[in-house]
From TrEMBL:
This is YfiR family protein. Residues 1-30 form the signal peptide. It comes from Zhongshania antarctica. InterPro entries: YfiR/HmsC-like. Pfam families: DUF4154.
Amino acid sequence: MKLLLRARLQVRLCLAVALVFFCGAIHAYADTSELEYRVKSAFLYNFTKFIEWPAARKRADFVMCVAGSPQLHAKLVETIGDKENNGMPIKFSSIRHPGEAQNCQLVFLGFMDAARLTDWVGALSDAAVLTVSDDSGFIEMGGMIQFVIIDGKIRFDINQTAANRSSIKMSSKLLGLARNVN
């Protein structure tokens, strides 16, 4: 009887330890995602300071759009809020289709399968819209800036050829901060 009670106690203790570990891992993951979205939001805002769009793309408002990542959209609004870009108020839009990006100066493409991402990049390739994503292979698909995580830090690669094709000029300072430029 004592042995049975002891075994049950050990099982319960193991389950309690596992539960605490699991909950802690979920909390740590949530914190990491929160921090990651905040850092990416700051990067997106700072990219705009080092990029020049063609005169035809300049409007009364600077519009940052997000497709496929409602968490990043919410974090952009929270983090950037009422800031400006070259005297223009920054507005935010969540979009679902490439055609909705015509009013955007910057589009972040998140959580898409490769075929859908390729469709978006193709549709925006000549639109003078800065395209940014964290999906692997984005640069090779013709995207302009791809976030990468190296040793727990967010870095970025730049496809200058794609930006030039869209008449988007990136400053040498931004190019110097990139991990890779092609």
